[in-house]
Amino acid sequence: MTQNIAILGASGYTGAELLRFLLRHPAARIAALTAERNAGQPARALLPHLTDHDLPDLCKIEAVDFGKIDFVFCALPHGTTQEVIAALPPSVRIVDLSADFRLTDTNVYQEWYDHAHRAPQLQHEAVYGLTEINRDAIRKARIVANPGCYPTASQLPLIPLLRAGVIEADDIIIDAKSGVSGAGRELKLGNLYCEVNEGMQAYGVAQHRHAPEIEQGLSAAAGRPVTITFTPHLVPMSRGMYASTYVRLAAGKTVADIEHVWRQTYANEPFVKILAVGQPPVTRHVRGTNLCHMNATTDRAPNRAILLSAIDNLVKGASGQAIQNMNVMLGLPETTGLEQTALIP
User: Fold this and answer.
1) Which one of 59, 149, 194, 292 is the catalytic residue?
2) Is-catalytic flag, 194?
3) Same structural domain for residues 164 and 292?
4) What is the pLDDT of residues 9-44, one digit of tens each?
């Protein structure tokens, strides 16, 4: 069942990663690639690493004949996707990699993204695409809101533990680091080599837009509102994401209970790997893959534990998870097109 696929916003990092995987996907045919400011150029002009592949030229969104498209990946900037998706034919299935449909409450969206939701009539249709947690709803969805990278690395460890009551819902602290590609491919002063190299910095402190997305998922898992302390950091590497999460154990629970819940929850999941005690995750070991590596350690502080998780922010944190969601929506094995092993060194 070959799908004619359009990638909207193909010239960015997430668009390029979608292409890297889809070009080897047996059910995918790349039918349209959009890049508004570079319309008319051949794809190889902006994506020279794909020169050997026969790709359509870049075009504007309005030039795409969506009547001939089966599946759309939206890799557009936040705030630009809602109106685009609202204009698509109802026959087209969509995975949106922006934040535009992730927050179920449109008022919360307006508060954090500084403008009104432009397609509120579609928000109820959108299914949050954390695949391992929400697979059944994703299978039936027309619109899937692909999670952010920080929310993926943070929620995969925490949601099963909150559901099982192994940890307390209060006092959750997430200290997370991302490679520079998480800021996108546009030219920005803060992303220049000399600005980033040999340094590390916190950003979006106490006000990062991924906080309400994480809290939305954790609140649903806990059955009550959850507020977290979340601080993201930029580190001088191209790709990768690491989350160190500090939690309070529920009465009578230990790290052994955390590992038991994880192993039960993720026993049959191809992309979530629970590492042995004393083996912390390493970003290099998931680089270029759709994997999430996780580990738990007893904290020196009484009744507390440290959860460590690592993903590739462009793959499991974006494009890989988007393709995983497409596979679920199409009834394909979830690993289809995603069998990439880690790029070492």
Assistant:
1) 149
2) no
3) yes
4) 999 999 999 999 999 999 999 999 999 888 999 998
